[in-house]
Design brief:
about 45% helix, oxidoreductase, FMN, Four Helix Bundle (Hemerythrin (Met), subunit A), globular, alpha/beta, 2 domains, eight-stranded parallel barrel, TIM Barrel, 16 helices
């Protein structure tokens, strides 16, 4: 079996969110957490749009690319490009329940076609030396019995998949929006843990409903790794202790303070932002950086309002930092007076 990146903790692939700028910011906070791209349509790569979808920064490693599709030739081409562009893993999306994805015959609907998924995995393995993983649900609609999940996993593993990332909810392919599919179907973490017990040779990563490192540590005892989704985006600082707590990296330093991370990200933005591109494309990833701290609301408002100014650039991050610091200092002063 090919060596996969350490799967103990990862941040889920999220459409419109985990773009290169987001991944750069997260990497300033944690060195070891595995990051994923947004889902990349294999068809788009087939038609020559690799630069658009695969360009990133060298600092993002370890980083995996997630592909969506159902054509073996296109997915093989995508897996080859993932290796050429220097990714550490290539992942096949068999978990997204959106109508748009289903219309293209990929995502969660493929769980009903395990033999096809196996063919896709084989094609990807033959085209690339990268580890090939599959991200799925525990089932779809009423096809959600554990024996059905085991049959799917067995078929995919036999085709050479190096690991599975399993969202511990089934997907309803009609009647629920993608957002509802992330919230309404019941979580079955126990089912994913049982998968690891029944397939000990296979890397199994648990996804769904994990909101902090304590939960990651808990479930990490039953499976090979845990994937955090939207919580890591809305509150990225929850990853600040990941290198020490989850990976036990020797001598791993704590992430720099939040203001320092914001300034490092500002430098990244200053090098990449150009006229005509809304600065909010970059600053939106910073909104949750001070989540839970005094002045967090001031920080978000300052970024939002400044980003709307014509010609706004990376300097608005410094302006927002100044407003946040002033507000936080005021709160600390009032607290000290109250306690005196």
């Amino acid at each position: 079996m090919r060596q996969t990146p350490n799967p103990k903790l990862s941040v889920a692939p999220m459409m419109d969110w985990t773009d290169p700028a987001c991944r750069y910011l997260l990497r300033l906070i944690t060195r070891h957490t595995l990051l994923y791209t947004e889902m990349v349509p294999a068809q788009a790569l087939w038609h020559g749009r690799a630069e658009r979808f695969l360009a990133g920064d060298a600092s993002e490693h370890p980083v995996a690319v997630q592909l969506g599709g159902s054509d073996p030739q296109q997915l093989a081409h995508g897996a080859h490009l993932a290796q050429v562009w220097g990714y550490d893993e290539v992942n096949l999306n068999v978990g997204c329940p959106s109508d748009r994805v289903q219309s293209g015959r990929f995502g969660a609907c493929l769980m009903r076609e395990p033999d096809l998924v196996a063919d896709l995995v084989r094609a990807m393995r033959e085209a690339s030396d990268l580890p090939v993983t599959v991200k799925s649900r525990i089932g779809v609609d009423h096809d959600d019995h554990y024996d059905q999940l085991c049959a799917f996993v067995d078929t995919v593993a036999s085709a050479g998949a190096d690991g599975l990332i399993v969202h511990a909810r089934k997907a309803w392919l009609s009647g629920l929006s993608p957002k509802q599919n992330r919230e309404i179907p019941a979580l079955r973490h126990d089912m994913v843990a049982q998968l690891k017990a029944d397939f000990p040779q296979l890397t199994i990563v648990l996804n769904g409903g994990i909101k902090d490192l304590a939960a990651a540590e808990h479930w990490g005892e039953a499976v090979d790794g845990v994937m955090i989704g939207r919580e890591a985006y809305h509150n990225p600082w929850l990853l600040a202790e990941a290198d020490q707590r989850i990976f036990a990296a020797p001598g791993a330093p704590k992430a720099p303070d939040r203001a320092s991370v914001a300034r490092q990200y500002r430098d990244y933005v200053a090098c990449r932002h150009y006229a005509g591109v809304p600065i909010s494309r970059y600053t939106r990833h910073l909104m949750g950086l001070f989540q839970g701290l005094p002045g967090a609301r001031v920080w978000r408002r300052a970024l939002s309002e400044a980003a709307a100014r014509p010609g706004a650039g990376s300097e608005i991050i410094d302006e927002a930092l100044d407003q946040w610091a002033e507000c936080a200092a005021s709160v600390r002063f009032e607290a000290s007076v109250a306690s005196a």
